[in-house]
Amino acid sequence: MRSGWHVLIDGSDPFPPSGRAGAFAVGPTGAFAFIFTDAIPDGSRLRQLRARAEETFANLAADRNRYVPHMIELLFLTERAPRQSSAGEHRLLDPATLAQHLVGGAPQLTRQRARDIAFSVAGRDSRYQLLSSDDAPSPEKISEHGLFEPVELQGDARERMLQRPFKDWMTFLDPDQLDLVHRNFRGPARFSGPAGTGKSVVAVHRMARFAKRYPGRMLFTSFVKTLPSYHESGFRQLAPHAGDRAEFVGLHAWAKSFLRGRGIVIEPDEGQIEDAFSRAWRGPARDYLAPLHPSPAYWKDEIHRIIKGRGITNLTTYKRVDRAHRYGLTLDGPRREIVWHELFEPYQKTLADRGHSDFNDLIDRATEELRAAPLDDPYGLVVVDEVQDFTYVELRLVHQIAGGGADAPLLLVGDGQQQVYPGGWRLSDAGIPIVGRGAKLRTNYRNREAVLAFARQVNALNSVDDLDGEPGFGLRDSETVLPGGSASAETVSSAAAADERLLARVRECDFAPGDIAVITTTRNDAKHIRQLLDRNNFRTVSLEHYDGTDDTHIKVGTVHRAKGMDFAAVMHIVRESALPDDPELAARRIMVARSRARDYVWECRIQS
Ligand SMILES: Nc1ncnc2c1ncn2[C@@H]1O[C@H](COP(=O)(O)OP(=O)(O)OP(=O)(O)O)[C@@H](O)[C@H]1O
């Protein structure tokens, strides 16, 4: 037998048994169930075979983690397979094609893990005879509760486990995470939890499990356009055969393409939107509103995130709406009238006169269109990541994409503590029935101890979540499983000094350029830093285009583009004068940037 492989054969008579796998193989490319058959079975029998195979591998523990049973691949074996026989992800194989299939896959398990899984299954289920390429098992390696004795994986061993070249979370999850992968929800559900607790990992595992069990399409979407592509590569490794049943696309791109399919073309143009706002602002609006708040950006957000973001279409509703968490300003009735008549209406008029639409118009139109005629081929699962930064109308759209009802297969994933755009609504406002289907993750898997301690120093409040009915659980309360790490901060008095310090850090640190992200406060700063690094012969890529696949360039971008992602080393240039004047929002942005780092974070503040 090829080295590193183990085969478990069902010893029952007659062989092969019916309704379950006759044998399993476990090796470096994963765990496989062999089903001896002449043809690939149909849907319900396939599901039954999968469920039986997964049961055999359920609850295999390694330290605090559990093997993820849906990672078992079902292989259908026949004496001689037709050359092109497949049903979706399943293929008929014969002895000639089997070996190639087994050894040709991507690595998933270390030799030790593969061995321990096989021995553990054989040890607890006497039905299986074990044929192993290794010597006889060393009994002390097998624990009654799992694959390893808990003490074995403390310290160094756990450290090694987390530094493996392939991703451990593909095959092992912690029990809380696995529970959320398996839990059944009838209707929209909500996963929350502080940064780095594996919310997105759990979401892509749920999609992979769905892909392996059920027919039907899946959608993974988010507000930030690059984030879906960033998570797509992880999903493709978990469910390589899902093909175009799984879409990973930003919400605006989804809406545009959906409308185009219905013969409606809406292409919001950022330049035109900006110009319409500037014109409105240059009128009497500025005279009235600048004394209340000097920043045009504040008023832009009032239009995009409060008025249009909440789908408000008349002044009476605007006057009544709770503008929760719009820092520093309560707007009474007469002031709201000014906002409405002097800013909002002129903005709308300019856009309309020029025949343009903004992003909220796009979202509204897609929602209307879906209400009028739902999708011909509905999604079986819709995952929304970083939901805390969605507006109310965007939430309404994703609910509608998932069918819009109380049983919509919608999964909202996010963390209110990480909201980096101004709020103005709470989850309960959106009217999506989630109560009772919320779950929280608590253990941080991303940040090493020193990095987490540094991120925790920020007092970032959570103003989005009001559904769980329990005291908030934030980054401060989460615990890390990764020891060590490095975190430091310094303050400089000019941008030039920050540039100098950054170059020194990039040169001195032990990280390859591809492992480093430079996070900035503004887009202009990101542009400037890229030019600086390029001039100094470092190759860079903008986070605006980063999809998680590039590993040679230094990534540079604002915190808005970095959220949801992680990097071995983060260098954060904070321009204090450009932070939002809302201290809560400012704190959340700092916290999000710090918590992107796994091993190393350095923060350089440019004093106002
Ligand atoms: N069980 C696990 N074992 C090992 N690594 C894990 C595990 N769960 C998650 N991770 C890793 O931890 C990091 C954070 O995971 P993920 O991005 O899913 O967290 P998140 O809760 O969505 O974070 P954020 O809210 O900050 O975006 C990723 O690098 C992921 O691969």
UniProtKB/TrEMBL annotation:
Coiled-coil segments: none
Residue ranges of every copy of the UvrD-like helicase ATP-binding domain listed in the record: 172-463
Superkingdom of this protein's organism: Bacteria
Record's protein name: AAA family ATPase
Transmembrane segments: none
Taxonomic classification: Bacteria, Bacillati, Actinomycetota, Actinomycetes, Mycobacteriales
InterPro entries tied to this protein: DNA_helicase_UvrD/REP, P-loop_NTPase, UvrD-like_ATP-bd
The entry's keywords: ATP-binding, Helicase, Hydrolase, Nucleotide-binding
One term of GO molecular function: DNA binding
